[in-house]
Design brief:
Blueprint lengths: L3 E3 L8 H7 L3 E10 L1 E5 L4 E5 L6 E9 L4 H11 L11 E10 L4 E9 L1 H10 L1 E2 L15
Antiparallel strand pairs: 1-5, 2-5, 2-6, 3-4, 3-8, 6-7
């Protein structure tokens, strides 16, 4: 039961946090994930894998309550339009290391842009240089 690294609408204070995570989490801690570049999408961000680069995405590490884990995993896969092996996925759920603010590294699930989406974003997308989609990190944020 891996925790989830969230960086967009599932973060505390964002719309989908209340819809999908409220009451289902045991802990929520600030964290970062290296080797990802964040791109602004229409209403939500995409993390694109950039191995070997110093890019960092900031978000939260969400640990689910054990009794809610399986249902939450299914709900998040549905929200992110992820089906294992499907060529139409917008996101892929992958296992990567998240680093907590105290320096501890934890393996977590993260939804990253699927290969076709990632290629389009690399070619024409708008990267969020801060790696943080919340607040001022968003393109056009106020």
């Amino acid at each position: 039961m891996l925790p989830f690294f969230v960086y967009g609408t599932l973060r505390p204070g964002e719309h989908n946090h209340g819809l999908f995570l409220r009451g289902r989490t045991r802990s929520e801690e600030p964290a970062a994930m290296r080797g990802l570049t964040l791109y602004d999408g229409p209403g939500y961000p995409y993390a694109v894998e950039t191995p070997g680069e110093a890019a960092v995405v900031r978000g939260e590490l969400i640990t689910a309550r054990p009794e809610a884990y399986e249902a939450l995993l299914r709900s998040l896969d549905h929200l992110e339009e992820y089906t294992p092996g499907a060529p139409t996925n917008l996101y892929e759920r992958v296992r990567r290391a998240a680093v907590l603010t105290r320096g501890t590294s934890v393996q977590a699930w993260v939804y990253v842009a699927a290969p076709t989406v990632a290629a389009r974003l690399r070619a024409r997308g708008t990267p969020i240089e801060s790696g943080d989609w919340s607040g001022e990190g968003r393109v056009g944020a106020r």
